[in-house]
Design goal:
Blueprint: H1 23-33, H2 41-46, H3 52-72, H4 80-96, H5 103-110
Helix pairs in contact: 3-4, 3-5
GO cellular component, one term: proteasome complex
Keywords: Proteasome
Protein name: Proteasome-associated protein ECM29
Length: 111
């Protein structure tokens, strides 16, 4: 995942009117590519399934999806579909904080 391909340019104002996909749709896609992301904690704590830079780009992009979806519809905060997506995102963040991850990855995940 290239940062440029995800619209994560240095200046947030470089792209006006950019529409991000729903958080749940993106998480579903990622989990279809790597179902082990939701595997048991013992497996996840030992090894990262992607390189640190991939996790960083993925987390930043998913945060943009989350913020965009929440901005569009404030009433989503309590919906079960949205809450399920947030829980899945938290599991992905938990995995990204595996002890072998880079410092930058830990900082990005902790935000």
């Amino acid at each position: 995942m290239a940062l440029e391909g995800l619209g994560l340019l240095k200046s947030e104002n470089q792209i006006d009117g950019l529409k991000y996909p729903k958080l749940g749709m993106m998480l579903d896609y990622i989990l279809r590519q790597q179902p082990k992301l939701l595997a048991s904690t013992e497996i996840r704590d030992q090894n990262l399934l992607f390189p640190s830079n991939t996790y960083i780009a993925m987390i930043k992009f998913l945060m943009k999806c989350f913020e965009s979806e929440l901005e569009k519809n404030k009433s989503l905060e309590g919906s079960s579909e949205f809450m399920s997506s947030v829980k899945t995102f938290c599991l992905l963040l938990e995995h990204s904080m595996s002890f072998e991850g880079s410092v930058e990855l830990h900082v990005t995940s902790a935000k």
